[in-house]
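Subject: Protein record for review, amino acid sequence with backbone structure tokens
Why sent: The fold of this protein is of interest and is recorded here as tokens.
Enclosed: The protein record, placed directly beneath this head.
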Amino acid sequence: MKRVILTSVLALLTLILVHGGLKPGDHAVSFSLKNVDGKTVALSDYSSQKGVIVVFTCNPCPFAKAYEQRIIDLHNKYAGQGFPVVAINSNNPVVSPEDSFENMKSRASEKNYPFPYLVDDQGIFEAYGATRTPHIFLLEKSGNGFEVAYIGAIDDNAMEASAVSKRYLESAIKAVMAGEKPSPASTKAVGCTIKP
């Protein structure tokens, strides 16, 4: 009996360690998810881009709302330079009713999102290791796919855009554009926990 319990505990620990999410330098996990317009959007759709700014976000979180305009601005600034935004909502609408597909469509329409807003019904957030909203994964083109260049926060002031002094994501994008590795390559994402 003790051996069975020990084996089960070791298997669980191995699972946690192996599936801890992506790290800078890892190959990005592909996805193919439904957008608020009803069409499917896949990571492979961006194969002609230099990179992709993947943002795990949601509707009701105060942090997600505080960053919403900054995310729109980032897309508008960098999509034309080869780094578009793709937003993914991983919250379970049973647990968080404000994150229903209808509410996602309303939010995207109300705020006039210039980027896709995808429903994560496949646990993509777990594969990436996203835990917060918002949680950023900057991907850069690598061969036929993408690799992770930066993970974490957009900047150093979630609630007050005018008080930001460090723009982590923009610095990472500029580093990638210059053929360099971002430094830091990861920061702590600040926001609400994802509710699967």
